[in-house]
Design a protein that fits this description.
By secondary structure, the chain is an alpha/beta fold. About 35% of the residues lie in helices and about 15% in strands. It starts with a strand and ends with a helix. The relative contact order is 0.11.
């Protein structure tokens, strides 16, 4: 019987994609379970075989109803409900004391993760992030004190540099456990796709939505870019529409609606390249082996650029608070306002000289 390994990934869709190379490698010698948010469950269901999935919405992902005390109680209770699975190992790639407490409450023999040190915690220079980090360190120390020196993590890992990509954190965990790193593409099975248009131009999939306003390039810029003669000459444009989404322009060459994850995978798979924001579709396209031009606003591409596409990121580092981790302290999104159509066009030209 394979030892059971629990992966705790309670962030968003793109973050779930970044955990896949570790998960795929771990499945070779472990019975893998994943604790994830309900919204990201479908990512892991794409795999064959799929891991055992435990979906849970932690109280700290929305508006807190009872403060840190409620979050800690929820983490402890959730960890205890997982004890029945008798995990040998529990891991997480995020520096978060609440997740460390959850893993400790599972009673897993090995617990690997990143303690909340300044180098491990993203954007720890921001005042509100600094406060969270210090509170986390207090929780880590308090746990050890209450449990006779027993730490939350049995093996603490540390990022090699402040600019280390988040994906490399998963790779560190794999190396520490002697697990193979499986990043051969595609990361999820490819669906059957219709042939590309026959006019000879590569298909450029375009997805202009993003989860947060601080990551959304203004619509007029999108309209100007996609109407540019050089874009129309070089590419057959395929606009990917989310549920109830509207086209950028009625004159666009083609579009496809993606009401679910499967249809989104199919749409991206049918294209030759991807243009989008710092968003989940960017990570999914990279996982499918597509070149990605990603427009970055509040996020930090050193940490979260699509896999193997860091050099295709479009970004203007003009804001003194960057990266703000989605809490803009300015009166407007300087990071997005300073990105011009010419900046994006320059990267697209590199795809098709």
């Amino acid at each position: 019987m394979k030892p059971r390994l629990l992966i705790v990934e309670l962030h968003h869709l793109g973050d779930a994609v970044l955990s896949l190379p570790f998960l795929r490698g771990a499945q070779e010698e472990h019975e893998v379970h994943i604790l994830c948010r309900p919204a990201t469950r479908a990512i892991y269901e794409l795999l064959s075989p799929a891991p055992t999935i435990h979906s849970w919405e932690p109280p700290w992902t929305g508006e807190p109803s009872g403060g840190i005390g409620a979050s800690l109680r929820a983490a402890r209770e959730k960890g205890r409900t997982l004890r029945e699975h008798k995990f040998a190992i529990a891991v997480s790639a995020w520096a978060d004391a609440r997740v460390e407490i959850l893993m400790a409450e599972t009673a897993a023999g090995q617990r690997l993760g990143f303690p909340m040190t300044r180098n491990n915690y993203y954007a720890s220079n921001l005042p509100w992030r600094r406060q969270r980090r210090l509170l986390g360190r207090l929780l880590e120390a308090g746990w050890a004190s209450l449990h006779l020196g027993r730490p939350l993590l049995t093996r603490s890992l540390h990022r090699t540099t402040p600019t280390q990509p988040h994906l490399q954190c998963w790779q560190q965990i794999a190396t520490s456990l002697g697990i193979s790193w499986e990043d051969s593409i595609p990361w999820v099975p490819l669906p059957h796709c219709s042939p590309s248009p026959s006019d000879g131009r590569p298909v450029l999939a375009v997805h202009r939505q993003a989860r947060l306003p601080s990551k959304q390039w203004p619509l007029p810029r999108w309209q100007e870019l996609l109407s540019h003669p050089e874009v129309k000459e070089r590419f057959h444009l395929l606009e990917i529409l989310p549920p109830e989404g509207e086209k950028i322009s009625p004159s666009r060459e083609s579009s496809v609606s993606t009401p679910d994850l499967g249809s989104l995978v199919t749409a991206i798979s049918s294209a030759d390249a991807m243009l989008c924001h710092d968003s989940f579709p960017a990570h999914l396209a990279a996982a499918l082996g597509k070149p990605v031009v990603a427009i970055f606003g509040s996020g930090e591409p050193d940490w979260f650029a699509p896999w193997k596409n860091r050099d295709r990121v479009v970004q203007k580092n003009v804001c003194p608070l960057h990266p703000c981790i989605d809490r803009c302290g300015m009166d407007r999104y300087l990071c997005l306002d300073h990105i011009k159509v010419a900046d994006v066009l320059q990267q697209l030209k590199r795809l098709v000289p």
